[in-house]
Give the backbone structure.
Amino acid sequence: MTSIPFDDRDGTIWVDGAFVPWREARLHVLSHGLHYGGAVFEGVRVYGGQPFKSVEHAERLRASAREMNFELPWSAAELDAVTREIVSRGQITDGYVRPVAWRGSEQISVSGAGSSVHVAVAAWEWPHVFSDDAQESGIRLRTSRWRRPSPESAPVRAKAASLYAIGTLARDEAEADGFDDALLLDHRGNLAEATGANLFLVIDGELHTPVPDGFLDGITRQTVIALAAGLGLTVRVRAIDPAELAVADEVFLTGTAYEVQPVRAVDAREFTVGGTTKLLAEAYGRLVRGEGDGAP
């Protein structure tokens, strides 16, 4: 099925304090954020008409902007209120919200100091990233030649648009080879994450996840770690060599868009969608839909 282009839809988008018709939400072609990567963004999932952890995402958006050396003119509480209003106006039931902030068009210079700051929030229906079958049977990852940068060479604590160029290159190459997504290593050669989701391995009944020192410590990642602890699972956050995939019983990804996504293969190595992955996916599903704390 052909997707409707994102610049030609009905609805409303909040831009710089005003709700405007969807097709009129524009920025100038000489915006600093477009030319020099001075942009940050978020993704918020909506379940049953309710944004999940909207405030946390708004706080991270503001923190990402600070990492990129600009301040947002709206508080986390104000952005949360906008998110809830845009979801209500769009009558979104199960969907996705995209807040984005960027530097304006006062100058075209590598330096962005003094540029205006713009913020927009849009929302649309979007039940799942992958098909229902992929949610059950898992997706296939290909290890990418691209790596996550060191914290000395990139603003890795920011959800910055510029950093996603690496993920775009990696995923385009993976999909061209018939895979669903790419697995990236960090600058040291250890396991890092997928193009837009954090990585977990299940080894002997314990969860193992890479140290997030070269990529985002995702909000969903943190949520799943807390759920695992509540379920009595041991979680080990450590450097993980790619060779350890050979001893993993299960592999899954976590992210706002991905939720808890099973992985059935990395390169030629296959994995079972096992009980631990299913347990956490079910617990996460209960939590985001307001069914208690996620416990069975």
Observations:
- The mean pLDDT is 95.
